[in-house]
Amino acid sequence: MQLNAEQLKAFDEQGYVFFPNCFSEEEILLMRAEADNILKLDRQEVWHEKTGAPRTAFAAHTFSEVFGLLARHPRLVEPLRQLFGEDVYVHQFKLNAKAAFEGDVWQWHQDYGTWARDDGMPQARAMNIAVFLDEVLPINGALMVIPKSHKHGTLAAGHDKSTTSYPLWTLDNETVTRLAAEAAEPGGVGIVAPTGKPGSVLMFHGNLVHASPPNITPYPRKIVYLTLCAVSNHITKFTRAEWIAHRDFTPIVPVDDGALLDYARAHRQAAE
Length: 272
Ligand code: SIN
Ligand code: MN
Fold this sequence. Notes:
Layout: H1 5-14, E1 16-19, H2 25-39, E2 46-48, E3 54-58, H3 60-63, H4 65-71, H5 74-84, E4 88-96, E5 106-109, H6 111-119, E6 126-132, E7 144-145, E8 158-160, E9 168-170, H7 173-183, E10 201-205, E11 210-212, E12 223-230, H8 259-271
Antiparallel strand pairs: 1-10, 2-3, 3-4, 4-12, 5-11, 6-10, 6-12, 7-11, 8-9
The protein binds succinic acid (SIN) and manganese (II) ion.
């Protein structure tokens, strides 16, 4: 999959591109079942909200065959190779649960703010690709982005280690207010929450400002975030665990486009 001229323009101007229905229902059923099992595991990579509900499973691509295929999927890898003009490696892999009733806030931040400060990543030549495993609704803790905010470079941020169980370099209210006001003119929208069916995909620039509110609905909102980084831009500081900020900079070799379906069919047959 390659980005067309319109998508490249939208990415450059707005800082994100949204692809509804990028993965089929059959592919999503496989990944959702796998995600539900992973979030129940008792292992160091699975973090919990202060209530005990699962929040994030890190590095699932290293211990789950299904997510290993997703991390090498051409629908995610090819557009980034196109954007960066070189090979990419997996910097981070997060499965965010945003559990029904208990999923907690992600404060306003830029991803590259953390990758630069904590991991010594030289440039914002890495980005998150969000794969919706559940339907993302306006009401169940949707991710919100501030269009065009990626044009501001790396903004001043404070290290919040207490609000949630996940330390994050977060922006102050004044900055968010200013950026949203800028995005709203002329004829723009200050804050956008891309919503859609399971299987939708959102790619967003490493400096795009984003956040998500708590989920107080009965509807879970699981999203996988695959962070791919240009190989020549690999991290230089190893302050976080290897399974949070990876140190294996081997270029990804994409799998076949049908790899998830082949896996689902082979395992269904084996079970019959
Ligand atoms: C993130 O910004 O890394 C996660 C946000 C979310 O899952 O809502
Ligand atoms: Mn983020």
